């Protein structure tokens, strides 16, 4: 275990003084501005200062922070999301371009749902051209379209203030606009990946690789060390209709055939995860050197591909992009009330406070990376199935109002080798964002939430209602009117009985049941109906459709990853449908939806009273069967 309390480091370059306040931007959010002070011609206080108050400060705009901000905002909290670059998505963004991986690697049915599924379904439809910049756009649009979120790009935190077990304020600054922010919040999320906020606050954290004895891990070391997995830079290339020469810079590394005995050059368009360095250095503070060294590796590898004579098919290929921001795998890991270990990944239990799941292999990388090409660059141990992630691993044991999601959660190094991937991190983000909103509404903090069994179950039911990826959770929401209804349909298949839309399970879980209503499509559509003995007051109707969770769904520059994906609406999904409410024989409500491509659809309508609710499926995106996993209704 290590502790750190680094503060005020930017004061050494003059960012700690001055009281200049600027006018807010339109839609800037909950900002407390005082009197504006205009600088004189030679005023040394060139930085504008803004005081911001909010419910929830999220540091880091990768997949974890993005989903945390969206989840909290959608559940009613005011959120400030700071990102130290001008793109959201972290390693998935156009800056780094790693495809979003997770439990789909099991090649079963465990693609993550919730906010991540919504984002990926949106991206697949509007970005059929497979542009990474359009993935950035999807993330940006989701955030700025939410009135509860204030997004601060190019903003880096550099100071954290605490009071006892409370984080109270952070200081951050934007180099692009010469602004300094003092942001006060009720809750803080460290989604920086590096654990920067928590380290500045003085929270307990871990770093490096543990011994076998420390946590009883067979994959641990005989002796612990401070070594981590390294960083990677990717590149992309395109094929042209003529030879495309390449001359390497003088600082590029030189490679020969033997350097690639464990590193296969299988294609030219996108390469390669094993371009990795930095595990033997300080992965954060040596970052400038590591980046340059990785660039030297990229151009050295491309020089080998183009000019060694061993890859003649590369003649017409040319680089079209290369990364300049390394993708990180490991840094600090913050200590929570529960530290996930190898056992939690390989022999998982249904932890009572489970709020997300993972399924990526135990995938540990050689720290030396490209500095030692004589060794296999990784050790990957596949899993048999998914495992649960507990809420106790997603909040700091040092502070009552500090949560975390991403690669910096409470795990050992061995467990991190699985939990670190972005789809898993995204579900953690949704879990903590929802937890913070829930805690604010119920005057709890996360540790108290875990101990209050009734509140914990209510929180988990809220996650499930919002399509969060969890294991072994069944809808028992007492407010769901659909659970009190009788179900009938115009038709159904043998394995798709109508009653399964209220069986409490909203996806295939490999238990022998489809957990969905299925009916063969007809010319006039097919319908399913909820019937109550007495009229119900309904203002919200929630539907969960089939989006082919057995498939990969993620943008990538690698053709093999895109294979078998559907870039557009998923075939199984219901496209057009009609909602109707009836009181006796009288229609009291009607709403038609066309061109749906989402899995979870929520209809918030003017309240009506009905003893029957009918959903008529008019069209799918190509599947011959109408398929609905779940119908929920709320007053």
Give a verbal description of the structure.
20% of the residues lie in helices and 27% in strands. With 635 residues, the protein is α+β, with helices and mostly antiparallel strands. Among the domains are: 2-98 and 143-205, 3-Layer(bba) Sandwich (FAD/NAD(P)-binding domain); 231-322, no CATH class; 481-634, Galactose-binding domain-like (Jelly Rolls), CATH 2.60.120.260. Strands 2, 3, 4, 5, 6, 7, 8 and 20 form an 8-stranded mixed sheet that branches. Strands 21, 22, 23, 24, 25, 26 and 27 form a 7-stranded antiparallel sheet that branches. Strands 1-9-15 form a 3-stranded antiparallel sheet, with no helix packed on it. The radius of gyration is 26 Å and the shape is globular. The two termini are 49 Å apart. Mean pLDDT is 93; it is low at 1-40.
Give the SSE map.
Blueprint: E1 2-3, E2 31-32, E3 48-59, H1 63-74, E4 79-82, H2 114-126, H3 132-144, E5 149-152, E6 155-163, E7 166-174, E8 179-190, H4 196-201, E9 204-206, H5 212-215, E10 231-232, E11 235-239, E12 270-271, E13 276-277, H6 287-307, E14 317-322, E15 333-334, H7 342-346, E16 354-358, E17 362-365, E18 378-381, E19 387-390, E20 402-404, H8 413-419, H9 422-442, H10 446-451, H11 453-465, E21 486-489, E22 517-520, E23 526-545, H12 559-562, E24 574-583, E25 586-593, E26 600-620, E27 625-634
Parallel strand pairs: 3-4, 3-8, 4-5, 8-20
Antiparallel strand pairs: 1-9, 2-3, 6-7, 7-8, 9-15, 10-13, 11-12, 11-14, 16-19, 17-18, 21-23, 22-27, 23-26, 23-27, 24-25, 24-26
Helix pairs in contact: 1-9, 2-3
């Amino acid at each position: 275990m290590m502790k750190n309390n680094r503060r005020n480091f930017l004061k050494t370059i003059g960012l700690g003084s001055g009281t200049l306040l600027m006018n807010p931007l339109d839609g800037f959010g909950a900002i407390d501005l005082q009197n504006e002070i205009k600088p004189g011609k030679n005023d040394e206080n060139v930085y504008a200062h803004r005081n911001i108050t909010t419910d929830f400060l999220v540091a880091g705009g990768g997949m974890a922070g993005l989903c945390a901000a969206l989840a909290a905002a959608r559940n009613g909290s005011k959120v400030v999301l700071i990102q130290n670059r001008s793109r959201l998505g972290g390693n998935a963004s156009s800056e780094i371009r790693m495809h979003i991986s997770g439990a789909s690697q099991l090649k079963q049915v465990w693609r993550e749902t919730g906010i991540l599924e919504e984002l990926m379904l949106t991206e697949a439809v509007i970005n059929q051209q497979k542009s990474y910049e359009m993935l950035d756009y999807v993330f940006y649009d989701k955030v700025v379209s939410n009135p509860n979120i204030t997004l601060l790009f190019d903003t880096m935190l550099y100071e954290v203030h605490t009071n006892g077990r409370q984080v109270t304020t952070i200081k951050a600054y934007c180099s692009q606009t010469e602004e300094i922010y003092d942001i006060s919040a009720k809750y803080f999320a460290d989604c920086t990946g590096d654990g920067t906020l928590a380290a500045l606050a003085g929270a307990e954290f871990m770093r490096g690789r543990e011994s076998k004895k420390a946590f009883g891990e067979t994959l641990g070391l005989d002796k612990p060390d401070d070594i981590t997995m390294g960083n990677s830079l990717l590149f992309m290339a395109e094929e042209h209709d003529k030879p495309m020469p390449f001359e390497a810079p003088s600082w590029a590394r030189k490679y020969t055939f033997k350097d690639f005995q464990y590193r296969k050059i299988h294609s030219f368009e996108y390469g390669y995860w094993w371009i990795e360095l930095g595990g033997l250095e300080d992965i954060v503070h040596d970052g400038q050197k590591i980046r340059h060294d990785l660039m030297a590796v990229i151009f050295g590898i491309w020089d080998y591909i183009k000019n060694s004579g061993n890859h003649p098919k590369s003649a017409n290929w040319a680089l079209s992009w290369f990364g300049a921001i390394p993708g990180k795998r490991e840094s600090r890991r913050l200590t929570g009330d529960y530290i996930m270990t190898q056992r939690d990944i390989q022999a998982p239990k249904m932890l009572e406070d489970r709020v997300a799941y993972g399924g990526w292999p135990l995938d540990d990388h050689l720290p030396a990376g490209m500095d030692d090409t004589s060794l296999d660059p990784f050790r990957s141990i596949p899993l048999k199935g998914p495992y649960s992630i507990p809420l106790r691993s997603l909040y700091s044991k040092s502070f009552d109002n500090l949560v975390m999601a991403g690669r910096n959660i409470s795990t050992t190094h061995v467990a991190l080798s699985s939990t670190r991937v972005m789809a898993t991190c995204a579900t953690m983000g949704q879990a903590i964002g929802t937890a913070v909103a829930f805690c604010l509404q119920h005057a709890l903090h996360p540790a108290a939430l875990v101990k209050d069994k009734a509140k914990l179950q209510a929180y988990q039911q809220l996650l499930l209602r919002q399509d969060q990826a969890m294991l072994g959770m069944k809808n028992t929401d007492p407010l769901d009117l659909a659970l009190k209804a009788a179900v009938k349909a115009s038709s159904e298949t043998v394995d798709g009985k109508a009653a399964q839309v209220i069986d409490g399970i909203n996806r295939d879980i490999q238990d022998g049941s489809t957990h969905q209503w299925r009916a063969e499509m007809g010319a006039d559509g097919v319908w399913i109906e909820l019937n109550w003995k007495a009229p119900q007051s309904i203002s919200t109707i929630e539907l969960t459709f089939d989006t082919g969770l057995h498939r990969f769904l993620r943008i990538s520059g690698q053709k093999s990853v895109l294979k078998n994906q559907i870039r557009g609406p998923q075939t199984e999904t219901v496209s057009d449908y009609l909602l109707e409410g009836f009181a006796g024989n009288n229609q009291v409500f009607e709403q038609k939806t066309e061109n749906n491509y989402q899995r979870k659809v929520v209809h918030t309508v003017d309240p009506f009273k009905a003893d029957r609710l009918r959903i008529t499926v008019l069209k799918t995106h190509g599947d011959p069967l109408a398929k609905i996993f779940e119908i929920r209704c709320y007053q």
